[in-house]
Amino acid sequence: MKIEVWSDVVCPFCYIGKKKFESAVSEFAERNNIELIWKSFQLNPSLKTDLNTSVYQHLSDSKGIPVEQAKAMGGHAAEMANSVGITMDFDKAIVANSFNAHRIIHFAKANGKQNEMKERLLKAYFTEGRNIDDSETLISLGTEIGLNADEVKAVLESDKYADAVQADIKESQQLGVTGVPFFVFDRKYAVSGAQDSSAFLETLEKSFSEWRKANPTAQLQVSEGPVCMPDKVCD
Q: How is the chain split into domains, by residue range?
């Protein structure tokens, strides 16, 4: 069964929601029969990467709120993150456009490492204070998870996967997604926001039960061991 998640790399609740979703999946008996797909979403597509402005000042300027209020919002998000094992350091975070990061996530998907790339980018942005719009940083992060450095560089020096990012964003608009994270289960049910893992588990169980009834012969992922087969020697 397919689960699609629209999220942004610079969204704190997307990181928190990812951890809560993963907690639910770990308790789900049919987890090996789930296909997880990360979809691109940009909270601020026109944002210009700025190494000289703090995220607090940026939030203050963009939302029209006092800097102290922005810091309080960051502190609240950091507390929520800590409760699920994430360290968020907004003092170190860099104001960065996430478009290129999303392109690399698509490249990682083509190489079977999408979830690893998503996790690495989130940690780089929120915990390590790295510039996720910097080519050398993206190449380094990509190689850490096993991608080819030259291939990552080639993607960044081209417009490859730009259309895929835009297609994800357009699709989110068609689905009526107004905020992220947004989890879509088999295109029938959705969970919006970083809800408790119990909400994800409940939706997982309900949507998978219906999917299995509709797909009784869908191929299962099987862990192989010694077996006996008709008309063959047992091995």
A: 2-209
Please identify, in words, the CATH class of the domain defined by 2-209. alpha beta
Distance between CA atoms of residues 126 and 124, nearest Å: 6
Do residues 207 and 76 make contact, with C-beta atoms less than 8 angstroms apart?
no
For strands 35-40 and 182-185, give the pairing: unpaired
Beta carbons within 8 Å of 88's beta carbon, 6+ residues apart: 12, 15, 74, 77, 78, 81, 82, 126, 127
Q: Are residues 50 and 138 in contact, defined by beta-carbon separation less than 8 angstroms?
A: no
Q: Over its length of 235 residues, how does the chain's per-residue pLDDT go in tens digits?
A: 999 999 999 999 999 999 999 999 999 999 999 999 999 999 999 999 999 999 999 999 999 999 999 999 999 999 999 999 999 999 999 999 999 999 999 999 999 999 999 999 999 999 999 999 999 999 999 999 999 999 999 999 999 999 999 999 999 999 999 999 999 999 999 999 999 999 999 999 999 999 999 998 775 544 455 554 455 555 5
Phi, psi of 23 (to 5 degrees): -65, -40
